Amino acid sequence: MLPWAPLALTSVTAALLALPVTPALYELWKRGDASPLPTSRHDGRIANFADVLQTRLEPLRPQLEQCRAEREVSRSSLAGMEILLVGADNFNFNFDSQLTQGISTLMFADAAHIPAGQVVDADVYADGPIDLGEGAVLRAAFGLDDIILGNSSTVLRWLHGDGNIYLRPGSTVYGRLSAGRSIRLERGCGFQHMHAPQILTIDSDDTRALATSDTHVCQAQKDLEEEDNGEHAGTGDMFTSSRPRLRVEGDFALPPGETLNANVIATGELHIGRGARLLGSSKSYKDTVIDEDACVHGSIVCGGTVWLGPRTFAAGPVMAESDVLIARGAQVGAPDAPTTISSSGTNIAAGCQLHGTVWARVRGSIEA
User: Fold this and answer.
1) Sign, Cα dihedral of 82, 87, 89, 90
2) Residue-wise pLDDT tens digits, 209-228
3) 18-62: per-residue pLDDT in tens?
4) Model pLDDT for residues 345-356, shown as the tens digit of each residue
């Protein structure tokens, strides 16, 4: 037997034992996987499509200004896109489908008027307001001013306006809908994902709602604010820092007119009675019912369907595995505290105020 044979056998055995754990030892030395995985590169903003379109079209700004000055229509190419630059006012009233053949984007120097029944298979950008006639269809649109969708008109992918967006009866926006100021929807409108500082559902004949942005707050919320300004001033911080948790096996009901300072978890259904106030968050494994004039000053999380009754107020997010049904006069969020509604489907009555994001995974609608 050779004298170095035991040493060779030991070395080979050690190498074979170390081989399976070599990657782990290398990771322990380098620690390359210590940081979180980059699962997403977007910031979650609903207006990202509009921002991308505006950025892509920015190099054509000088040509658009020239078209505006000369009141003409010009065709241009940019990064593989065929773009029609519109500076002529009469183009808005005599929509030329032949001229838009093969166009991916229509860029208007001023207002864009889409005639009734017209189908535009292109993105629309306008430095002024956008007005869709009855039954008109757009692929996507971005306006620097107000946008009005006529009766039964449709936007297929996304819609963003820096001003206000008005959806007339029967109009629908698929994909993403966002506004810099407000979104105002009339009866029979449809949506999927929308975001605005203020979202109003209004009656067709409610002209005051079209012109005002007054904030409605349920009576119970007004009472709480009056108390906070009086003898209970400063209790908000106390509620936030020392709110207890109440876990209930089965159903839970907060009686009408009662006030509860707690976070409630119910394995069954959860019911907040008329005029009651929950100064905390609620979570139910089944349905959640908030009766009229009641307030919830935290989040509402539900494994079934959430019913928000007339003139109810929810300060925090409303999340439901099934649907969210919102009755007339309800308010979710506030102008200085926008929040989120997320569900499979959302049905909203006229006369409601929402602030923030409404995310319907299947479809959202305004009660007809």
Assistant:
1) negative
2) 444 444 445 554 555 555 54
3) 777 777 777 667 666 555 555 555 555 677 888 888 888 889 889
4) 999 999 999 999
